[in-house]
Amino acid sequence: MKEWLQRCWVIPALLLMNLVTMFLPQPSQTMLEHVSTADYWSAAAVAFLCGLCVARQPFQQALLDPEVHVLCALYSLVIAPLSAVVAALLLRAAGLSEAEFLRGLVLTACLPPSLTSTVALTTVAAGSEATAVVGALGCKYISVLVSPLLMRHLAELDLTWLSATETLKSITLSITVPLVAGQIIRAITNLEYRQVPLRHLCCAILLLNQYVVSSNLATDCIQAYSQSRLAIMVLLVLTVLLIQDMIIFQSSKTSHINLTSEEIASVLFTGAHKSLRYGRLMLDGKNTSLCCFYIYTAFQTMVCFGVDYFMG
């Protein structure tokens, strides 16, 4: 147990923080305005740290492996949205939520992955950091075209007002540039940077970033739903998503896919959390509930328990 806590301390820390923030006072509007900024810089920091600490060869291997790109895109932008549709149908059949929440849940699943949580949870589960970065980054670029189409067909939300050029620019500046900068510094200094605690730094950044999310959205959930009803919604959504993740993990290990268990774990985490920056941009004020974003991202951390079990 002690060894597990030393390696996976961020999981109970995240769960505890998500529960505690439900009872904190509503944050100020100033803090709300800086949520997207915090998400932007956390992704940049994680990308730079990965570029600095991970050797070039794993990045090249992941970048040139078509299975990594196909599986990450398939999971994050196809299977995750379809699973959210199933969860929404179950919630509707049980009469536990209204159309606004259900629509928001499907839209959340259509968002691109969060690099910060993908890499942090991958390090916790002893996965491949290079696969996590390449997979999440590839999904972000693909999502510029795919996410608006998914949202239009699955939730009838028109995002033609979004600028693909601005989105591509944001992804490049917040992730690609810091990643390349880290690799350049690593090559110039000719150092391994093994002394840099990559796992703990990424987990600390994730914890800080998730605090910003929880402190802004958890209060809204409590105000919109009773605690018992919210708990049932969380359990139902997570049951569908956890079953989905374990089926994917097991089928990937027993199929003819030429990926290691570490790489498969990294692929799974590309769909575990969704980008806060794009979530607020696409969902806020569009007749949807950001409470669904909180439920999906905050408690999907428990996926790491299942992956860690199968990895062990």
Describe the structure.
By secondary structure, the protein is mostly helical. It has a single domain (33-306), classed as Na+/H+ antiporter like fold. Helix content is 78%, strand content 0%. It contains 16 helices and no strands. The protein has helices at 2-8, 10-20, 29-33, 35-53, 56-63, 66-94, 99-109, 115-124, 129-155, 164-189, 198-224, 227-254, 261-269, 276-283, 291-299, 303-311. Helix 4 (35-53) runs antiparallel to helix 14 and helix 6 packs antiparallel against helix 7. It is globular, with a radius of gyration of 18 Å. The mean pLDDT is 77.
Q: How would you sum up the global shape?
A: globular
Structural class: mainly alpha
Total number of helical segments?
Answer: 16
Q: State the end-to-end CA separation.
A: 14 Å
Number of strands: 0
How do the strands and helices of this protein lay out in sequence?
Blueprint: H1 2-8, H2 10-20, H3 29-33, H4 35-53, H5 56-63, H6 66-94, H7 99-109, H8 115-124, H9 129-155, H10 164-189, H11 198-224, H12 227-254, H13 261-269, H14 276-283, H15 291-299, H16 303-311
